[in-house]
User: Which sequence fits this backbone?
């Protein structure tokens, strides 16, 4: 299952995020399962402004089995990571086929403009060149 970490500090690396997740989840672990996350399972993304400066940073972490991933989501959602409160949820992959922005159907030209020419335009009957 893929997990999305939102509102993480800018400049955080995949290694830092993995270290944070492991330390917080394994802190009071009663079970014998220890969570181990490899850095190759983490993808870091950032949102930039018009001047290519990072504004927000996100992390996508792949965990299995799904029941362990759900426990991680419940445990880490709302915690503070370097003075920022992070939000954690399941990451859904969007389908390009369902994107409404890409499915805009252009109206046919006949329906867009039914008038052939402007009604205010009159032929110049009494005109002459000066």
Assistant:
């Amino acid at each position: 299952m893929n997990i999305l970490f939102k509102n993480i500090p800018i400049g955080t690396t995949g290694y830092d995020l993995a270290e944070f997740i492991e330390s917080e989840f394994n802190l009071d672990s009663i079970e014998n399962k220890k969570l181990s996350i490899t850095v190759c399972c983490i993808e870091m993304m950032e949102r930039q402004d018009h001047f290519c400066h990072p504004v927000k940073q996100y992390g996508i972490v792949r965990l299995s089995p799904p029941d362990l991933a759900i426990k991680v989501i419940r445990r880490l959602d709302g915690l503070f990571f370097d003075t920022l409160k992070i939000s954690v949820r399941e990451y859904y992959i969007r389908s390009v086929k369902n994107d409404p922005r890409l499915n805009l159907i252009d109206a046919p030209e006949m329906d867009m403009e039914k008038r052939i020419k402007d009604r205010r335009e009159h032929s110049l009957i009494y005109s002459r060149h000066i």
Notes: The helical segments are 14-25, 66-76, 109-112. The first helix runs from residue 14 to 25. The chain has a mean pLDDT of 79.
